[in-house]
Amino acid sequence: MDTTRPDDPSPTLAAVAERAGVSPITVSRVVRLPALVKPQTRVRVEAAMRELGYVPNQVAGSLVTARSNAIGVLVPTIANSIFADTVQGLSDTLEPLGYAVVLAQSRYDHVREDRILAALLARRPEALIMVGSPATADGARLLRQARIPVVETWDLPEEPIDAVAGFDNYAAGAAVASHMAAQGRQRLAFIGGDDPRAGRRWLGFRDTALAAGLAMPQRLILERDATAAGTVLARLPKTDAVFAANDAHAIGLMSGLRRAGLLRDGPGPAQPVAVIGLGDLEMGRLIAPTLSTVRVHGTAIGKAAAGLTLSRAGPRRIDLGFKLVLRESG
Fold this sequence. Notes:
It is a single chain. This protein is of the alpha/beta class. Helices cover about 40% and strands about 15% of the residues. Helix 7 links the parallel strand 3 and strand 4.
């Protein structure tokens, strides 16, 4: 029997339960905690929802349970795919448990970041996950006062607000400089943004180069969303090895080097100018020469961050490490 009425276009949870042949509680579980429902039952309930056009009222549910079932996620940008694996990892963990991932971007703007943090917290999320740490004292204070799980990622701050899942950016920069020194490179340079994580990569890179007896590396701070080609080459005279703070900058630089005749395709003698990026983007594995990079375990970071929001048991500081992957570019 059709339990909806022509004058009542909004099907109810009870109508879905009757159509699927289950209890209203089971329908509610499919909506809120689908992982707890047997797959065959879930499929039947979801089919009934589609047939009836039923849309769960999450707002009403949150008023009753005082829970939003939302997880706020703040990333610097969605224009660069370097953070995509992290977002995918946490989404794959949280969404099957009935959580909605609310994604926002700061665009590396401190003022915007504080505004976005306030907007996310106003929606009473169950937890908040962010790439990096709050850029300002006001942002940090907002998160501490929220009294919800807060997970900082892609770094390992000494004093996290709550929990952290990431890797040591200073050590990553040090590993790259150590490799370049071992290869006999003499004039090193670092290119990238001026965000705190890139800053720590630069410090590790600089300190290790100096400790190896090399001259002070150059550092070029690129404009937001800039590619590392064009005028960058003119500002790096006689440089024979470059560490780019991320693969996007590295790939842009390689394009300029190729036009200038300073990059050879394929394996063979050492490149006139070695290039190493960070992130291990797929494009870096497809271009010629293939890009050497620091591989960051982005998906694992996302899954670990999700786990830290779900349980307070176990360590609150998780180091996922990194790997220096050497290919044809250096």
